[in-house]
Every structure is written in C-alpha cells, then in structure tokens.
From TrEMBL:
<keyword id="KW-0119">Carbohydrate metabolism</keyword>
<keyword id="KW-0328">Glycosyltransferase</keyword>
<keyword id="KW-0294">Fucose metabolism</keyword>
<keyword id="KW-0472">Membrane</keyword>
<dbReference type="InterPro" id="IPR019378">
    <property type="entry name" value="GDP-Fuc_O-FucTrfase"/>
</dbReference>
<keyword id="KW-1133">Transmembrane helix</keyword>
<keyword id="KW-0325">Glycoprotein</keyword>
<keyword id="KW-0808">Transferase</keyword>
<dbReference type="GO" id="GO:0006004">
    <property type="term" value="P:fucose metabolic process"/>
</dbReference>
<keyword id="KW-0812">Transmembrane</keyword>
<keyword id="KW-0735">Signal-anchor</keyword>
<dbReference type="GO" id="GO:0016757">
    <property type="term" value="F:glycosyltransferase activity"/>
</dbReference>
<dbReference type="GO" id="GO:0016020">
    <property type="term" value="C:membrane"/>
</dbReference>
<feature type="transmembrane region" description="Helical">
    <location>
        <begin position="29"/>
        <end position="54"/>
    </location>
</feature>
<dbReference type="InterPro" id="IPR024709">
    <property type="entry name" value="FucosylTrfase_pln"/>
</dbReference>
<comment type="pathway">
    <text>Glycan metabolism.</text>
</comment>
<comment type="similarity">
    <text>Belongs to the glycosyltransferase GT106 family.</text>
</comment>
C-alpha cells in the first residue's frame, strides 16, 4: 500500500514540478499529488473514450445487446419495471387501421412489424392487431395472450399511435360498416401512399383482412426498415408468463452445456400442404393426401413427392436430419433441443435421431405437465417457447425454411450473427441418395456436406434482391441488414461479407 502511494507521489511530483516553483511543505506536496492524480485519471479516461471511438460501433452495439439479453434472462422475473414513457409523436391521424393477421406465430410477427410501418408511413392510428384463430393451428389466443400489449403500445409511442380497440362510434351498433380488403402483396411505399391513404381518408377506418408479406423486402426507406426492426426486436415482447417459462427452458438447457436447437419441421400440416411423403408408410401418405383435400385453400392437390424432394422443397425427414447432423460433426454428446410441435409418426420416426443423439430433449421432457398445461391447447404460445429457446441456442438448424426458420435466423443475426445453419436441401438430398446407394463413402459424404455449408452459417451477407420476383428474394426478416450495423463499420462488415461469400 505504502509502496504504491509513494510511487504515485513520485510520478506526480515530476508532473507537478514543471508547473510550480513555490517552496514545498508537506501539505503542498500532498495537494499537488492529489491534483495531478486527478489529471492523470482524466487522461486515462480520455484515452479510454478515444479508444471507444476507434472501436467499431457495431461491436459495442452487439456486446450491449448480448449483455441486455443475458441480464434480461436473469433479471426479467424479479425486476420488471416499465421504462419511462417516451414522448408521444404529435401528428394528425389520417384514420384508423384495423388488421387481422393470418398464419402461424412467426408469419404474424413479421406482419405486425409491417403493419406498424404502414401505420407510421400513412400517419394512421393502429388498432392492436387481431391474431389468426382459424388457421390450421386454430389457436384462440389474442394478441395480449402472447405479447405484452402495454409494452407494445408504449414503446412505439414516439412513432405511431396504437389503441387497444376501435372507438365505439365505428361499431356495428352504430351501423358503421367497416370496409375490409387485403392489401396487395409485397407493396412499396408508393402503393400505400397513393392507393391506401386516400381510401382511409375517405372511409376513416380501413380493415386489412390479410397481412402476410404485404410490404416489400427492398426499396423502402431506411427509416421504415429500421422501424420494422424496432418492432421486431424491441416492441414485441412475449407476456411475462411466456417469458418466464421460456427463460426457464433456456436455463435448464444451458446448465447442461451448449445446445443445438433443431427446428424439425416434420409436422403433419407441413407435410400435407407440401405433399412430402418420403419415408412415410402408404397409409401415412394417404392420410396426408386426404388432409390436403380437406383444406380448400391449399391449392395444389396432386403432388409427386419425390420430384418435390429432389428440388429441395421438402423438409428433411428426422432420419435425414440425423445423418446430416452427424456429417456436420455433431457427436453423441451434443445436446439437441427439438423445437417443434408433434412430429409426424412420432417416436417411430424419431428413433434414428435418438440413436445418434441420445441427449435429445423436447420441452415436454424438461418441464412438468402442470407448467405446460396452460399452453397446451395454444399452439402459438408453444411456438413462442420454441422461438425463445431457438433464439438463445448456440446453433440453430431449421430443416425447412418456413417463417419460423427465417424470423429466428434474422433475430440471431441481430444478436451478433449467432450460428444458424441454412441447409442447402437440394444439395443434401442428392448427397444423401448417393451415400445411401453406396456411391459416396461416409467420409466423402461428410466432407461434401460440410463443404456445402461453409458459407451458410449466418455470416454477414447481402440480402439478395430480385426485381419483380419478391417471393424468390431473400426475406427481409431473415437478414434485416439495415439494422445489423451502423455508420462506417457497416461498409467494413459488408465488404468482408463480399469477400467471404460466394
Ligand atoms: C401538436 O402539433 C400541433 C401543430 O403542430 C400543435 O398545435 C399542438 O399544440 C401540438 N400538440 C402537442 C401536445 O404538442
Ligand atoms: C405525416 O405527418 C407528418 C407530420 O407529423 C407530415 O410531415 C407528413 O407529411 C404526414 N404524412 C402523411 C402521409 O400524411
Ligand atoms: C377480405 O376482404 C375481401 C373484400 O371484402 C373479401 O373478398 C375476402 O374474402 C376477405 N378475406 C378474408 C380472409 O376475410
Ligand atoms: C413501387 O412499386 C411500383 C409497382 O410495383 C413500381 O412501379 C415502383 O417503381 C415502385 N417504387 C419504388 C420506389 O420502388
Ligand atoms: C386441450 O384440448 C383437448 C381436446 O380438444 C382436451 O381434451 C384437453 O382437456 C385440453 N387441455 C387443456 C389443458 O385445456
Ligand atoms: C446411385 O444413385 C445415383 C443417382 O441417384 C445414380 O446415378 C447411381 O448410378 C447410383 N449408384 C448405384 C451404385 O446404384
Ligand atoms: C458488395 O456487393 C454488393 C453487390 O453484390 C454491392 O452492391 C456492394 O456495393 C458491395 N459492397 C462493398 C462494400 O464492396
């Protein structure tokens, strides 16, 4: 202790001596040393501050987001104080926008972000979105059963006014007829400003009765793109009940080490819709076909499964997934969480995966029946749990690129390009078939599988733009690149992406 204070004094005397020539009493020496220590510390703080300026802002952002996530996961239950309210944006509302989302949880999530952006663009007042209760999943949950509605409203106050319900004067009781329509898919700002705005102005209330993919991926203003992200990453928070159980699942898994979240989209609805029957019995194939005919709005009825599979358009079967994971180098010790609902063919179809990876778990195995009961008949709430576990996983592997795969992939990019393996299914089924008929040895197969995915791990990349073919483009929510880096560091990051990809 003494040694240290002496050395500081020694140094400070040197600094002090150049400024003062007055005789030194002990007090003066002490005074000078205190002052110069302060000076020294100021210098250090300055240097640190300058260092931070050099530090790419992107990195600090990420560490910030990481720490937010980790602290969140520890503190969310005990400390749930609302942040102070932002000042509300002052604008003249041009009318009310009512929306009914369609599809599963993640499709609706993206749609909610789009609808907030549309309301902001047109200066409308948004009514809290209605969720789909009639889709295949038939989940009766309302917005407030899944998302923290007060947080949603408050955290977007500075952009758009959101109300829980339409004012009474627009109700049927007052003979008000609300005009409903689906907006044109993949539209840009021009469409909403020129076609929709005059309509709302005239009608006071407009009801969008479909919301999936109604806003273009590209060609929108950066402000609007960033707003979509802000809704997705900050304003949409699950309810405390869902968060509590989701974090519990994550903690149970993390306590046992790193884990892979496998979004095994081998569920009945998907297989029936796509007509993928590879690995199914004849009875199962018939059942899937009957289901397809039972849903009138599924347009394609006659489908040749093998053709579709060879085009890479079928989800991997559980057996295929087991081989691919092994080829990628995951071993018997790997902890795998199956993020999915009911697997078609259940345990029988999971046998190969379980044999290769004994540490496979599902939420039903990690939580007790009572805890899950409240969510049981609510597929969207179950999907919310899987969403949380998937976002937090060390590696995320979706076996099909549906909405969940895409939205989770984008979320993981935002959290610092966490590893998401984007399977090249067309390539994989060819390799699988060649391995299975003996053309490729295990080693050749494994090397080819790994090589095919080196550049498909969720690294920084440019979102692919294809003019006039929005469906084939990269989806905005899978790679919201406008929100992943800022300022000059963005250039470096994307230059890096250019040199390392393709
Ligand atoms: C909102 O803006 C209008 C017009 O710019 C102004 O008259 C009004 O006082 C503002 N209201 C608030 C609450 O700031
Ligand atoms: C929305 O309101 C802002 C002022 O708050 C105004 O500048 C802008 O032109 C308005 N846009 C539309 C589409 O009404
Ligand atoms: C949406 O509204 C349009 C126009 O009223 C109608 O034709 C269509 O069937 C509606 N769609 C849904 C899903 O309600
Ligand atoms: C918006 O979409 C329309 C119709 O698809 C197109 O003609 C127009 O060029 C687009 N505008 C912008 C700014 O991308
Ligand atoms: C869920 O629904 C099934 C059948 O619809 C019913 O038998 C079961 O009791 C329900 N479970 C809960 C927890 O509500
Ligand atoms: C294996 O399958 C490929 C294509 O599916 C075929 O070209 C090849 O001849 C087959 N090899 C054997 C040994 O059957
Ligand atoms: C990267 O490539 C894209 C097109 O592939 C191009 O538009 C962009 O300017 C490139 N960025 C840098 C920083 O080189």
């Amino acid at each position: 202790m003494e040694f240290r204070s002496e050395s500081v004094q020694g140094r400070s005397e040197k600094i002090g001596s150049s400024v003062s020539v007055i005789p030194r009493t002990r007090i003066q020496v002490w005074f000078i040393s205190v002052c110069s220590s302060i000076l020294l510390w100021t210098c250090i703080i300055q240097i640190v501050a300058v260092g931070e300026l050099w530090h790419p802002k992107f990195i600090t952002n990420i560490t910030y987001k990481f720490s937010q996530i980790t602290t969140d996961s520890h503190l969310h239950v005990s400390v749930r104080s609302r942040p102070p309210l932002l000042p509300a944006r002052n604008y003249t509302s041009q009318g009310f926008l009512k929306v009914s989302c369609n599809g599963g949880l993640n499709q609706m999530r993206a749609a909610i972000c789009d609808m907030v952006a549309v309301a902001r663009l047109l200066n409308l007042t948004l009514v809290v979105p209605e969720l789909d209760k009639t889709s295949f999943w038939a989940d009766p949950s309302n917005f407030e059963d899944i998302f923290d509605v007060q947080h949603f409203i408050n955290s977007l106050r500075d952009e758009v006014r959101i109300v829980r319900r339409l004012p009474k004067r627009f109700s049927r009781k007052f003979k008000f007829k609300i005009f409903e329509m689906p907006p044109v898919s993949w539209s840009n700002e021009t469409y909403y400003l020129q076609q929709i705005l005059p309509l709302v102005n005239k009608l006071k209330v407009l009801h969008f009765n479909k919301t999936d993919a109604r806003l273009a991926n590209n060609g929108l203003s950066v402000e609007l793109q960033k707003l979509r992200c802000r809704v997705n990453f900050q304003a949409l928070k699950f309810t405390p009940q869902i968060e509590k159980l989701g974090y519990k699942l994550v903690r149970i898994l993390q306590d046992k080490g790193p884990y892979v979240a496998l979004h095994l989209r081998y569920e009945m609805d998907m297989l029936a819709f796509l007509g993928c029957t590879h690995g199914c019995t004849n009875e199962e194939a018939d059942e899937l076909k009957r289901l397809r005919y039972a849903y009138p709005w599924w347009r394609e009825k006659e489908i040749v499964s093998e053709e579709r599979r060879l085009q890479g358009l079928c989800p991997l079967t559980p057996e295929e997934a087991a081989l691919i994971l092994q080829a990628m180098g995951f071993d018997k010790e790997t902890q795998i969480y199956i993020a999915a609902g009911e697997i078609y063919g259940s345990e029988r179809r999971l046998a190969a995966l379980r044999a290769a990876f004994p540490r496979i778990v599902r939420k039903e195995m990690l939580l007790d029946q009572v805890e899950l009961q409240q969510f049981q008949n609510h597929s969207s709430q179950m999907a919310a749990l899987d969403f949380m576990v998937s976002v937090s996983s060390n590696t995320f592997i979706p076996t099909y690129d549906g909405n969940m795969a895409k939205v989770v992939e984008g979320h993981r990019r935002y959290l610092g390009f966490k590893r998401t393996i984007q399977l090249d299914r067309k390539r994989l089924v060819t390799l699988l078939d060649l391995h299975q008929n003996g053309t490729l040895s295990w080693n050749e197969f494994a090397v080819s599988v790994r090589e095919a995915h080196e550049k498909r791990m969720g690294q920084p990349t440019h979102r692919m733009v294809i003019p006039d073919r929005p469906k084939e483009e990269d989806y905005f929510y899978a790679n919201p690149q406008e929100c992943l880096c800022e300022g000059s560091s963005c250039k470096d990051l994307l230059a890096m992406a250019n040199s390392s990809v393709r």
